[in-house]
Design brief:
The complex is a heterodimer of chains A (112) and B (111).
Chain A lengths: L3 E4 L2 E4 L5 E7 L5 E8 L3 E10 L2 E4 L6 E7 L2 E6 L8 E8 L7 E2 L3 E5 L1
Chain B lengths: L3 E3 L2 E5 L4 E7 L6 E7 L5 E8 L4 E4 L2 E6 L4 E6 L8 E8 L6 E3 L3 E6 L1
Parallel strand pairs in B: 2-11
Antiparallel strand pairs in B: 1-3, 3-8, 4-5, 4-9, 6-7, 7-8, 9-10, 9-11
Classes of the chains: A mainly beta (112), B mainly beta (111).
Chain lengths: 112, 111
């Protein structure tokens, strides 16, 4: 099994719908992150969490919310999806020592 | 503000060396990273370097860090078609609570 699992892998949804992207990890890491990838823009941080009780906004949190249900689970919600939220979404985890992130395989979301 | 910049494309012939360059702005960054993204996959950590190092070598990969110019490079020796991917430079900013990524360099390897 993958260290960081994201579901679904692909999703098409309509404008105005609520959608949840899920992430689970088996790394035992406390820190979890949600990033969005757009062509030519790299990865931009949406939310991050350092433990179950610690949730922080990233640089582009508007229109998104998160829930840290357990150390291993971190979900991202779009309350009312809009077309410019069409992107590739990545969940990542890290330990405290700075030795880089472990990424999931991504969720490709299309809002029509 | 914090920023990481890298060129968007690089094309090399199989067997040649590839050099991917990156500049960053946070002079107090503690860690700098190179990630690889293959089609349809997430980012995979290739290597990292501490800010107190000038160079790190790992098999075909050589990372060079010029702190004065805030310049980081990744050299891939004997580039293979399997090296075709997007390569992301990233820096861990002061305080350690987030990592800033560049836009990625797409490496094309011609047979």
């Amino acid at each position: 099994d993958a260290d960081v699992t994201q579901t679904p892998r692909n999703r098409i949804t309509k404008t105005g719908k609520r959608i949840m992207l899920e992430c689970s990890q088996t790394k035992g890491h406390d820190r979890m992150y949600w990033y969005r990838q757009d062509p030519g823009l790299g990865l931009r941080l949406i939310y991050y969490s350092f433990d179950v009780k610690d949730i922080n906004k990233g640089e582009i949190s508007d229109g998104y919310s998160v829930s840290r249900q357990a150390q291993a689970k971190f979900s991202l919600s779009l309350e009312s999806a809009i077309p410019n939220q069409t992107a590739l979404y990545f969940c990542a985890t890290s330990d405290l020592d700075g030795y880089g992130y472990t990424f999931g395989s991504g969720t490709r979301l299309t809002v029509v | 503000g914090e920023d990481v910049e890298q060129s968007l494309f690089l094309s090399v012939r199989e067997g040649d060396s590839s050099v991917i360059n990156c500049t960053y702005t946070d002079s107090s960054s503690t860690y700098l990273y190179w990630y690889k993204q293959e089609p349809g996959a997430g980012l995979q950590l290739l290597t990292y370097i501490f800010s107190n190092m000038d160079m790190k070598q790992d098999q075909r990969l050589t990372v060079l860090l010029n702190k004065k110019d805030k310049h980081l490079s990744l050299r891939i020796a004997d580039t293979q078609t399997g090296d075709s991917a997007i390569y992301f430079c990233a820096e861990r900013v002061t305080g350690g609570f987030k990592t800033i990524f560049g836009a990625g360099t797409r490496l094309f390897v011609k047979a």
